[in-house]
């Protein structure tokens, strides 16, 4: 704490004199806000996990469909060769 010229330095050991009456209300609101932020972070992380799971499922399904389309293409070629011979 800065001392101005001619001002005596006094050390306050009791912080209750320096607190504003509304400071407790602010602390309560800050606590409520921190709880909300924690819930939002938790929900966001859950959403990211779900998105990753869905992305993995989409990749697997796409690969499976691609393999089925290749198998179908090869089967059609095999049938066409039998008909032409």
Keywords for this entry:
transmembrane helix, mainly alpha, 85 residues, rod-shaped, 73% helix, transmembrane
Outline the structure in words.
The chain has one domain (23-84). With 85 residues, it is mostly helical. The mean pLDDT is 86. The protein is rod-shaped. Helices cover 73% and strands 0% of the residues. The protein contains one helix and no strands. Residues 8-18 have a biased composition (Basic and acidic residues). Keywords: Membrane, Transmembrane, Transmembrane helix. Residues 1-27 are annotated as: Disordered. The chain crosses the membrane at residues 58-76.
Please outline the helices and strands.
Blueprint: H1 23-84
Region (Disordered): 1-27
Transmembrane segments: 58-76
Keywords: Membrane, Transmembrane, Transmembrane helix
What is shown here, in short?
This protein has 85 residues and is mainly alpha-helical.
Structural class category = mainly alpha
Distance from first to last alpha carbon: 101 Å
- Share in helix: over 70%
Main beta sheet: strand number and arrangement? Answer: none
Query: What share of residues are in beta strands?
Result: under 5%
N-to-C series of helices and strands: H
